[in-house]
Amino acid sequence: MIFRSFRTVHRLPHPGRPFVQGVDIDRGTIWESTGRYGRSTLRQVDATDGSVLWSGRLPDELFAEGICLVGDVLWQLTWREGVALRWRLRDMAYDRVPYDAEGWGMCFTGTDVVTSDGSDRLTLRDPEDLRSHRTVSVRIGDRPASALNDLTWAEGVLWAVVHGTPYILGIDLADGRVCGWTDASDMRRDELPITAHVMNGIAALPGTDHFLLTGKHWRSLYEVEPRPIPPPRWARLEGLGTSF
After folding, report:
1. Is residue 203 part of a domain?
2. Which of 98, 107, 114 is nearest to 74 (CA)?
3. Alpha-carbon distance 238 to 197, whole Å?
4. Does residue 192 sit within a domain?
């Protein structure tokens, strides 16, 4: 298993400090899904200065969750409403699509949409309609890795934020094995004075090994790069400790 931490490369302001449920990035645009009933939105943010370029409000009965881009479509999950929103980027209109699970995080691998539901399970889905065709149980050694939340895909590895913690797991989708562990405590520690400091937004930056990282009501969007660290004591005790 590879062990890492993050170093902040650049910090963007986060207007309104929204209740972030998911992020994605493409060609200089950051997309954010913000949650809560009566306050959920999809936002388009300038990746150079953090300014909000566009914001679309969801109906009051929907609680927005994770998002991912698939070509000229942006998928947005809802929490417990049994629907996903399929946004057309050409006109920023959406239609509702039935969804068979509780919505948490999602990402696109280039072939499949992968979703989480807050457990140790990841579901692989058709990018056209989100119909499920395979589930993967995620394990650290012999133990389930639960509370998987927002997701991103980078160089053949799926990275998952662990809800309520500063940790991000790298996962091999072939067998569900956790192959990487990243500690983002430094970023979360910067946000601790605010009421809600849950990390809940990760996106790989194309063409680099950097990530975009943020959270619920965070003051900033962080561009971060990984750096190796020694294996923590728990990993050494369980025989999982290697680094790079």
Report:
1. no
2. 107
3. 30
4. no
Write out pLDDT tens, residues 12-40: 998 888 999 999 999 889 999 999 999 99
Rounded to whole angstroms, the Cα distance separating 121 from 235 reads 22
Structure token digits, residue 17: 């400090």
Q: Token pair of 73, please?
A: 């479509």
How much is the pTM?
0.92
pLDDT tens-digit series, residues 168-197: 999 999 999 999 999 998 876 777 655 556
C-alpha–C-alpha distance, residues 25 and 68, integer Å: 9
CATH of the domain at 126: 2.130.10.10
Alpha-carbon span 177 to 141, nearest angstrom? 7
Q: Which domain holds residue 93?
A: 18-185
94, amino acid identity: Y
Cα distances (angstroms) measured from residue 45 to each of 31, 65, 237: 6, 17, 43
Name 179's Cβ contacts closer than 8 Å, sequence gap at least 6.
1, 2, 157, 170, 171, 172
- What is the spatial order of strands in the sheet that 29-34 belongs to? 20-26, 29-34, 41-46, 52-57
**SS3 at position 190:** helix
- Answer yes or no: is 46 within a domain: yes
For residues 115 and 67, what is the distance between their CA atoms, to the nearest angstrom? 10
Q: Are strands 2-13 and 93-98 parallel, antiparallel or unpaired?
A: unpaired
Look over the chain and give the mean of its residue pLDDT values, rounded to a whole number: 91
For 185, the 3-state DSSP assignment is helix
Determine, yes or no, domain membership for 204. Answer: no
Structurally, the chain folds into a number of domains equal to: 1
